[in-house]
Automatic annotation (TrEMBL):
GO terms for biological process: polyamine biosynthetic process. NCBIfam families: MFS_SpdSyn (NF037959). SUPFAM superfamilies: S-adenosyl-L-methionine-dependent methyltransferases. This is Spermidine synthase. Keywords: Polyamine biosynthesis. It holds the Pfam family Spermine_synth. PANTHER family: POLYAMINE AMINOPROPYLTRANSFERASE 2 (PTHR43317:SF11), THERMOSPERMINE SYNTHASE ACAULIS5 (PTHR43317). It comes from Pseudomyxococcus hansupus. CDD domains: AdoMet_MTases (cd02440). InterPro entries: SAM-dependent_MTases_sf.
Length: 282
């Protein structure tokens, strides 16, 4: 069943490529395969890992508020949980859509963007309008190593690090999440972009997030298999009407053309933790 789902998904992407033709601007080689930059007739640029891979980024250079992929719009909605972050960490750069957006709407915030592949950082700078300055910094290093290195805490940590098919195992362990929580402010939030299970609710990452946070929220992106998780370490619950009011205020402030309120994640029911069956694996 899983193989059938992957085949159908690949065929759908090929069909979409023929329906919406794009010009290939650049192909970079990496250990994980080709990294492709393309552009459609309207000027939107796309980043893919592999020729039939999902879009990692879709950017209209020069227009950072025009988030083109629905999962990035859902990540924008998570600012309802932390409306005024002063320090933000983004693990996984892609075309730079998320850090560039955050820099546009919160120009005074200190933003660190961490990317392990030099080819990805290169194409983000050359083709997608990603530019560093006094408050936006790029770090070419492993995301886990960056988080485990002692440093200031962040109000918002966004984990958006995908390989060609999955989240790197080093970023999907209890030890990594312990290190992540150590870099989070008491009122901060951790946001994750994960993939839903084929044809089933939830994601394979849900149990790890449930074990790591006393409060967990989720939003499933209808147009793709993305699932956005928001983990909070404090027990205070914000009423949904207040979260929606915050999202509406942010949308008006930013001049959003899409419905930010509709993408605010909802609370997940946390399961009781299972008894340990062996030593923890890093």
């Amino acid at each position: 069943m899983r193989k059938t789902h992957r085949t159908v998904t690949a065929l759908a992407r090929v069909s979409r490529a023929f329906e919406y033709p794009r010009a290939v601007l650049h192909v970079a080689r990496s250990a994980g395969g080709p990294i492709i930059v393309s552009e459609d007739d309207e000027g939107r640029r796309y980043l893919q890992f592999g020729w039939i891979g999902a879009f990692q980024s879709a950017v209209w250079p020069g227009f950072p508020l025009r988030l083109e992929l629905d999962y990035t719009r859902a990540i924008a909605a998570t600012l309802a949980f932390v409306p005024e972050p002063s320090r933000i960490l983004v693990v996984g750069l892609g075309g730079g859509a998320i850090p560039t957006f955050l820099h546009a709407v919160r120009p005074q915030a200190h933003i660190d963007a961490v990317e392990i592949q030099p080819q990805v950082l290169d194409v983000a700078r050359r083709f997608f309008g990603f530019h560093e300055d006094a408050t936006l910094h790029a770090h070419l290093m492993d995301g886990r190593r960056f988080i485990e290195t002692p440093g200031p805490a962040y109000d918002l940590i966004i984990l958006d690090a995908f390989g060609a098919r999955c989240i790197p195992p080093a970023l999907a362990s209890p030890a990594f999440f312990q290190a992540t929580l150590a870099r989070l402010t008491p009122d901060g939030a951790v946001v994750g972009n994960v993939l839903r299970k084929s044809g089933r609710p939830g994601s394979l990452m849900d149990p790890l997030w449930q074990a790591s946070f006393p409060q967990l929220y989720a939003f499933d992106v209808e147009a793709s298999d993305n699932r956005i998780l928001v983990g909070l370490t404090h027990p205070r619950k914000t009423p949904r009407r207040e979260l929606l009011a915050r999202a509406g205020k942010l949308a008006r402030e930013w001049g959003m053309v899409f419905n930010l309120r509709a993408r605010v994640p909802r609370p997940m029911r946390l399961r009781a933790p299972r008894p340990a069956t062996g030593p923890e694996q890093p």
